[in-house]
Design brief:
The chain is α+β, with helices and mostly antiparallel strands. It contains six helices and ten strands. 26% of the residues lie in helices and 26% in strands. Helix 3 crosses helix 5. Keywords: DNA-binding.
Length: 191
């Protein structure tokens, strides 16, 4: 699926969301702290934002980076992501990157984080999330408590719980599985 690398177009998803909200590039730039020319380049697929920049844009648009990525990608009924596929978000290095393991607009979002990420960023997802430590160690802060997780440990977060996490070992690898924010949780099941 080498062609996949060329088809992920997050700029169109950013533009659609901005237009839905009837916002100008200047407003999004002001909210995100990014420049109007950079945002224009992103929307026109001339620049690919780092994960940190995409999160800032998502915050400015009242959504999440995961939702923007999912909206940028057509859903496939069957999609294989190979271990050597370099389908990672821009700005990463071989030692630090995020790889999307379920591509497209599906009910589940799955990411593999290798190394560290923006540890100061706080997350709050609408639906449930599971973190599984594949290797190394991480520390998660949730509901006023710190949880130290090592290889093989997992942490479940109910939707709406504010949390942040950071790698505490250089070889940290974390799998994050989350129910899509576009899924509405109801008593006794999901829609």
């Amino acid at each position: 699926m080498d062609e996949y690398k060329e088809t992920l177009r997050v700029g169109s998803a950013v533009r659609r969301r901005r237009r839905q909200l009837e916002l100008t590039l200047a407003v999004v730039a002001g909210r995100s702290g990014l420049s109007v020319p950079f945002l224009s380049q992103v929307e026109n697929e001339r620049a690919r934002p780092s994960m940190r920049s995409l999160e800032r844009v998502a915050d400015a648009l009242g959504t999440t980076a995961v939702e923007l990525l999912a909206a940028a990608d057509p859903a496939c009924t069957v999609d294989v992501v190979r271990a050597d596929d370099q389908v990672s978000l821009a700005g990463g290095t071989p030692e630090t990157h995020v790889r999307d393991l379920v591509r497209g607009h599906h009910q589940l979002h799955v990411f593999e984080y290798v190394g560290d990420h923006d540890e100061g960023r706080e997350f709050q997802h609408r639906n449930d999330e599971l973190m599984y430590v594949i290797g190394g160690a991480v520390e998660v802060e949730a509901e006023g408590r710190a949880y130290r997780l090592g290889r093989g440990d997992s942490l479940y977060l109910t939707g709406g719980v504010r949390h942040r996490w950071r790698a505490t070992a250089a070889d940290a690898r974390v799998l994050v599985v989350a129910v899509g924010d576009h899924i509405e949780a109801v008593d006794g099941g999901r829609h």
